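Technical annex, item 7. During the second reporting period the consortium partners agreed on a shared format for inverse folding records so that results from different sites could be compared directly. Each record opens with the tokenized structure and is followed by the designed sequence. A conforming record, contributed by the partner at site C, is shown below for reference.
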């Protein structure tokens, strides 16, 4: 074979290998799970959990940011344990103004000193996520429809960390999470669960 041609083939093989490795990283991933726990008059309440399944990589201060693009005309009615960075234009709402009417909202964790009423378990660490730990918040979504048939998965997920770049795959429906009560005698199931897997791509 021509030396040039074989060099090109080797290069192609190497680049195939490295890009597929980035997609199925042995170094772990960040998995973001949305569990729909209940319905409201035109949407749902979800518990959102971000797990750091990376063995050696922390999300340092000032912490993660998460953003996505709504598929319909969803709005964020309220949040506990995290907050949106911007409200956007909510002029069509005269009462009960949503927290965010942006098509692409951005969410950040609260600081450890957040008021008690705005905290839930595993929240409020200023977005710091050590290996093996998780970060949680509750979100109330409006204008989503209140059944499994009307809810659309958000798209274009981004998980942003200072000086680290992650690539997130599209959200995927998975079997609804089963939650166990603390006494492990009763179980409850989420109505719907989806997951987004984000993999570290490079330092920036
Ligand atoms: C993400 O990490 C978890 C925990 O190690 C693992 O179970 C899962 O398969 C990983 N997902 C992908 C798509 O790499």
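Designed sequence (site C submission):
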């Amino acid at each position: 074979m021509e030396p040039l041609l074989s060099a090109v083939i080797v290069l192609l093989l190497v680049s195939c290998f490295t890009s597929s490795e980035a997609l199925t990283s042995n170094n772990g991933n960040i998995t973001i799970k949305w569990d729909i726990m209940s319905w409201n008059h035109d949407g749902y309440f979800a518990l959102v959990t971000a797990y750091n399944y990376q063995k050696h990589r922390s999300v340092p201060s000032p912490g993660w940011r998460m953003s996505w693009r709504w598929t319909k005309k969803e709005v964020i009615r309220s949040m506990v344990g995290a907050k949106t960075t911007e409200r956007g234009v909510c002029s069509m709402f005269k009462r009960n103004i949503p927290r965010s009417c942006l098509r692409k909202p951005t969410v950040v964790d609260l600081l450890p000193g957040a008021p008690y009423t705005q905290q839930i378990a595993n929240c409020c660490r200023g977005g710091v996520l050590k290996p093996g730990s998780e970060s949680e918040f509750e979100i109330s979504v409006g204008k989503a429809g209140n059944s499994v048939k009307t809810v659309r998965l958000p798209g274009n997920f981004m998980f942003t960390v200072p000086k680290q770049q992650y690539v997130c795959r599209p959200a995927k429906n998975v079997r609804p999470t089963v939650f166990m009560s603390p006494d492990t005698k009763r179980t409850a199931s989420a109505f719907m669960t989806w997951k987004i897997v984000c993999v570290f791509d490079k330092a920036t």
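The first strand starts at residue 30 and ends at 40. The radius of gyration is 20 Å. All partners now use this format for quarterly exchanges.
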